[in-house]
Amino acid sequence: MIEHQDHIVKAYDDELKQLTRWVQEMGDHVLQQYDDAVMAMNTRDDALAARAFTNDNTVDVLEQQLNELALRMLALRQPMAGDLRLIIGAMRIARDLERIGDYAANLAKRARTLNAVPPLSVTNAVVETARLARPIIQEAVSSFIEKDSEKAANALTQDDLIDEAYHQLVRHLIAHMQENPADIATCTQLLFTAKNLERIGDRATNIAETVQFIISGSFLVPVRKKRDLPALGGDA
Amino acid sequence: MIEHQDHIVKAYDDELKQLTRWVQEMGDHVLQQYDDAVMAMNTRDDALAARAFTNDNTVDVLEQQLNELALRMLALRQPMAGDLRLIIGAMRIARDLERIGDYAANLAKRARTLNAVPPLSVTNAVVETARLARPIIQEAVSSFIEKDSEKAANALTQDDLIDEAYHQLVRHLIAHMQENPADIATCTQLLFTAKNLERIGDRATNIAETVQFIISGSFLVPVRKKRDLPALGGDA
Question: Which segments within chain B are labelled E, that is strand?
């Protein structure tokens, strides 16, 4: 009987670890896709862009596996307190990662569209903003893996940088269009690219908030709330 | 003992109904906010815009209450199968509704920014697209309340209309900017407004997908996947 009990405890423990491993795998995959997309934009590399927007299935499959295991655990293991929050939290984080993957694929697709027209110098500012977003995704994921609330708080703080960079970028793009009306169509692509980066920052923020919930046990009023609405007359 | 058992069953049943009621309340509130935002944009009514972007707290509070009850039920009631999916699904839907509320607040904020400059005729096309999105939100929420998979499927189909209208709107705005460079800053606001509407359609789609999961028990490969990436050279 004790042996049987030990066996159940071990299986349960393995399942919890499996959830964490899948989140890590999703995070690794999404970061790779993001790096490829940004590099494709920076170096005007169509092949790299294609790699980042095709074959996007891995993250979806991982999310589905994670959801199915999480539901099975909820039904059969009766998890309590911290374990319960970990399971619910892993599902939420998987969803945010899956969406970041979608945004990265969309960046790659836009990179390829941008490569079909002469390069604009303003693209550099977009790439710079993309570089700011990367550590936030990484920090948010690793705050989950290590259950590190300081890292989570750090990711939340960093997101302000993206928002600032995003607003600056939009102003920059508007000014560029006003001076070069011939570039309007291309700049519209870049405006949506900028918006994607802001959304990616937002999703990474969600992940960090979920980690704080897993650790603390209380739902926080989302930090993004205060930032999501620009000042009147704001550009985005 | 039987009486005690009955009592537990009734309490559990009441809790499930409570979750559904809160989703309904969130849906009603978000739709009101959305209607106000669209009307504020259509009639250039600053007071209405202000109503739609202030006092946005109700939906957040409802989501938090819903999450807390759902977690308590998962910990204490050991829900199985359909009930488990309903609880998990309600949490997912609450999150999507909360985000639709944020997008509606953002629409209202942009409406007020737009009211500060002379009206552009292209705003009408934005309002028309907004009108297309409304029934999808409503259909998605009521597919949850009524556990109606046909309504959910219907919401998923309708989202294609938004996507089409959105792409058309972006092309329209690009053309308008090219012909009227003086309107570039205002049109950038409208581009992001159009993007918001597309995101709202996407979130409503998420809700309908969650309803299908609650009913069928299997996670579907998201329909939006196929649509999220525009054709090469596409405008968004």
Answer: none
Q: Return all residues near A144 (Cβ < 8 A) that are at least 6 apart.
A: A20, A23, A89, A90, A93, A152, A207, A210, A211, A214
DSSP designation for A222: P
ipTM of the complex: 0.86
H or E stretch including A83?
A: helix A81-115
**Residue that the structure tokens 């005690």 belong to:** B4
Inform me whether the C-beta atom of residue A226 falls under 8 Å from chain B C-beta atoms.
Answer: no
SS3 B233: coil
Kindly state the tokens that stand for B225: 């996947």
Give the count of alpha carbons within 13 A of B149, CB side only: 6
The total number of residues written for chain A in this structure? 236
Please check whether residue B122 is in contact with residue B172, taking contact to mean a CB–CB distance below 8 angstroms.
yes
Name the DSSP class of B56. Answer: T
Provide CB contacts within 8 A for B118, sequence distance 6+: none
Handedness of CA A4, A6, A11, A12 (dihedral sign): positive
A192·B236 Cβ contact <8 A: yes
Nearest to A189 by CA among A121, A126, A134, A105: A126
CA nearest to B102, candidates A206, A132, A100, A194? A206
CA atoms of A1 and A9, how far apart (whole Å): 12
Q: Which residues on chain A are in Cβ contact (under 8 Å) with B219? A: 64, 67-68
Q: How far is B123 from chain A (nearest CA, A)?
A: 17
CB count within 10 Å of CB A98 equals 21
Any residues with CB less than 8 A from the CB of A228 and at least 6 apart, and which? A202, B102, B105, B106
The nearest alpha carbon in chain A to B219 belongs to A64
> Nearest residue of B to residue A176 by CA position?
B184
Integer Cα distance of B64 and B202 in angstroms: 22
Chain A partners within 8 Å of B115 (Cβ): none
Spatial distance between the Cα atoms of B123 and B114, rounded to a whole number of angstroms: 9
Q: Which residues contact A159 (CB under 8 A, 6 or more apart)?
A: A136, A201, A202, A204, A205, A223, A224, A227
Residue type, B211: V
- Scanning the structure block, which residue is given the tokens 């939006």? B224
Query: Three-state SS for B48?
Result: helix
Q: Six-digit token pair at A93?
A: 């984080």
CB atoms within 10 A of CB B80: 11
Q: How many CA atoms lie within 13 A of A221 on its CB side?
A: 10
* Per-residue pLDDT tens over the stretch A49-68: 998 887 668 899 999 999 99
**pLDDT tens digits, B50-98:** 988 876 688 999 999 999 999 999 998 888 889 999 999 999 999 999 9
